[in-house]
Design brief:
heterodimer; A: 17 helices; B: alpha+beta; Ctag/Cox11 (Pfam 04442); 2 domains; 2 helices
Chain lengths: 525, 196
């Protein structure tokens, strides 16, 4: 830690080769590592989804057996949530937060190195289960007992992988909070912090509060399976329903962990391309904080159908629907920011705009699911699948991709190819709607989720959904290509300012920024 | 230069302090995860959530008057966990009772396997709202039940439906599931079973 406190020491050694990446404590290097890890997991998790959609292209069993199908749905979820979305946000935080608040680096650089390097080990444990006798975990990412306890050799690997991911993200969260609390440049007061920083601080508190609860829950599963405890075993006086309560006490904050930084990214992009300051900055912060608070008191809306006293159903229904209020404030503020702005539609702005529209669709289907009486119809159908993919893919992932296009010129010093960026956007947006919108209809018509086969009346929409999936998957290769091109130094040189309407300390640095930036605290305007 | 150095060191120390505090917070949340287990138990007993039935002693039960104007049907369901080689069934499928009345129902279990097994029955009442109004005075589920190979056992339960059962509930179902207690030979009550 003293290494970074005394940055002048670093200037003598600039390690290269593999050791640079293994031992690095530099926030930019670690941010790059996180983002590269995330994109590789995106493609691995995406290929699992392709298997799922290929099998569902037609009714009947075509390519895989039901057990492998279940492994694919489970692993797709685990890899995308813990491997793609969460590390992408931590990567963006590493790159941007120190530059946005005028700090020379993250507060705890060695911890930072450690929290990244746990991830490859965690995912080696998790992905290795695919090659084990009995296969990978197949009981769903929610790991409900007693089903999950039937997992074969993969079970302890699953649990320890979850432990490592949890430790990694808690350490990342500790680092973000410490950095923002202690390392701001003089004059960078809390009400001047960019919204991306604010949303990340709140997310970090959610991580610290929620991830350890998951760690506890999966440890209980582990001891139930191997050490004779009976937390969830009715024979010993336990209760499997209790797992669902403990899991969703973690699980609901977790879904906001995956969306709040996305709100932050969109709140950076929209003002830049509307060339107006963000409308309602303070209300944005309060809205994020209230969403974060509410996330801890709504968990049982994931389990309306397991049975609950009427008062419980009502409480969780009303508190869930209440979340629409701060979320509505955010959407209103983004729209108001654009109102009478001089807008241009470069690639990052397109992703951000699409985020606002499609995330709202996901929010509306969430409201439908939040109504307890209606939920009995929708529970465990494709309607739920459509809902959470609208908020996670066209929500979180779209914001991440928009953020990457937004900041890529800053990171690499090269503009991405605008034409390819737009092609990527339009292909993705059209195909993602073809992929997920029909799933609403399938769910309302009663098609259950997590099944490899279905009744013939669902055939048409499933086929369209699968076609959408293949196009969406393939169009991400354009993204990979544009990013690799900019990283390898191709493309137009980017200025420090990059975007005409961009404001903030990070844009005062040259593109790419020097390896050590803000070693002297900058003046905050 | 020197002051800059001292400043840098004090910032690093401050970072480490805050880092440890936050780590402690994470550790406490892990403890909170475990605390949810007893909290959940208390919640279930208080609300009758999840079909957790109430237990009272005979004196309390007798103190309640019998409401002869009302009939309630109590249905019985008997299950065994998948790996338990027992036949387990109620003697009658349902009984019509008055609220406040003390009733005895009989179940029977037979060990079809070739080894002695100790079982534990776990009760549940549906609808969940009725659970806290279903009171057991004496029940075979209060203790472990050992069965030698081929042995048959009569299992009585004495219960009472309380007068405050919501008027719209006319039927409730009492279900038992027998689980094996692996590795346990001795019979006799276990303090852990008391709340069952």
């Amino acid at each position: 830690m003293t290494d970074i406190a005394l940055p002048q020491h670093h200037e003598h050694e600039h390690p290269s080769g593999i050791t640079r990446w293994l031992f690095t404590t530099n926030h930019k290097d670690i941010g790059t590592l996180y983002l590269l890890f995330s994109v590789s997991m995106l493609f691995i998790g995406g290929s699992f989804a392709m298997v799922v959609r290929a099998e569902l292209f037609q009714p009947g069993l075509q390519f895989v057996n039901p057990h492998f199908f279940n492994q694919m749905t489970t692993m797709h979820a685990l890899v995308m949530i813990f491997g793609a979305v969460m590390p992408a946000f931590v990567g963006l935080a590493n790159w941007m937060i120190p530059m946005m608040i005028g700090a020379p680096d993250m507060a705890l650089p060695r911890l930072n190195n450690w929290s990244f390097w746990l991830l490859p080990f965690a995912f080696t444990l998790l992905l290795s289960t695919l090659f084990m006798p009995g296969g990978a975990p197949s009981g769903g990412w929610t790991m409900y007992p007693p089903l999950v306890l039937q997992t074969g050799m993969a079970f302890p690997f699953l649990i320890f992988a979850v432990h490592l991911m949890g430790i990694s993200s808690v350490m990342g969260a500790i680092n973000v909070i410490t950095t923002v609390f202690n390392m701001r440049a003089p004059g960078m007061t809390y009400t001047k912090l960019p919204l991306f920083v604010w949303t990340w601080v709140i997310t970090a508190f959610l991580l610290i509060a929620a991830m350890p609860v998951l760690a506890g829950a999966v440890t209980m599963l582990l001891t139930d399976k191997f050490f004779g405890t009976s937390f969830f075993n009715a024979a010993g006086g336990g209760d499997p329903v209790m797992f669902q309560h403990v899991f969703w006490f973690f699980g609901h904050p977790e879904v906001y962990i995956m969306i709040l930084p996305a709100f932050g990214i969109v709140s950076q992009i929209v003002p830049t391309f509307a060339r107006k300051p963000l409308f309602g900055y303070i209300s944005m912060i309060y809205a994020v904080a209230s969403i974060a608070f509410l996330s801890f008191i709504v968990w049982a809306h994931h389990m309306f159908t397991v049975g609950m006293p009427l008062a419980g159903e009502l409480f969780f229904m009303y508190s869930t629907v209440l979340i629409a209020v701060p979320t509505g404030v955010k959407v209103f503020n983004w729209v108001a920011t654009m109102w009478r702005g001089s807008m241009t539609f470069e690639t990052p702005m397109l992703w951000a705009l699409c985020f606002i529209i499609l995330f709202s669709i996901g929010g509306f289907s969430g409201l439908m699911l939040g109504l307890a009486p209606a939920d009995f119809q929708y529970q465990d159908t494709y309607f739920v699948v459509a809902h959470f993919h609208y908020v996670l893919v066209t929500g979180a992932v779209f914001a991440i991709i928009g953020g990457v296009y937004f900041w890529l010129p800053k990171w690499t010093g090269r503009m991405y190819n605008e034409r390819l960026g737009k092609l990527h956007f339009w292909l993705s947006t059209l195909s993602v709607n073809l992929l997920f919108f029909p799933q609403h209809f399938l769910g309302l018509a009663g098609m259950p989720r997590r099944i490899p086969d279905y009744a013939v009346q669902y055939a048409e929409w499933n086929m369209l959904s699968s076609i959408g999936a293949f196009v969406f998957g393939a169009s991400q290769l354009i993204f990979l290509y544009t990013v690799i091109r900019a990283m390898s130094g191709h493309g137009e040189k980017a200025s420090g300012q990059v975007w005409e309407g961009a404001h903030g300390l990070e844009w005062t640095l040259p593109s790419p920024p020097p390896y050590h930036s803000f070693t002297e605290a900058p003046k905050v305007p | 230069m020197n002051t800059a150095r001292t400043d840098a060191i004090s910032i690093a120390a401050g970072n480490r302090r805050l880092g440890w505090k936050l780590a402690l917070g994470a550790l406490l949340m892990c403890g909170f995860g475990y605390l949810l287990v007893p909290l959940y138990r208390v919640y279930c007993e208080y609300t009758g959530f999840n079909g957790t039935t109430a237990r009272i002693d005979p004196g309390q039960a007798a103190a309640q008057g019998i409401d002869r104007t009302r009939w309630v049907t109590v249905e019985f369901a008997a299950n065994t966990s998948a790996d338990l080689p027992w036949a387990f069934r109620p003697e009658v499928n349902s009984l019509r009772v008055h609220p406040g009345e003390m009733v005895v129902a009989q179940f029977e279990a037979r060990n079809l396997g070739s080894r002695a097994i100790v079982g534990q029955a776990v009760p549940s009442v549906t609808p969940g709202r009725a659970a806290s109004h279903f009171r057991k005075i004496e029940c075979f589920c209060f203790s472990r039940q050992p069965l030698a190979p081929g042995q048959m056992l009569k299992l009585p339960v004495q219960f009472q439906v309380d007068n405050n059962l919501p008027p719209e509930i006319g039927t409730l179902t009492l279900s038992y599931t027998f689980f094996e207690l692996p590795g346990i030979r001795a019979a006799g009550p276990d303090p852990r079973d008391a709340r069952l």
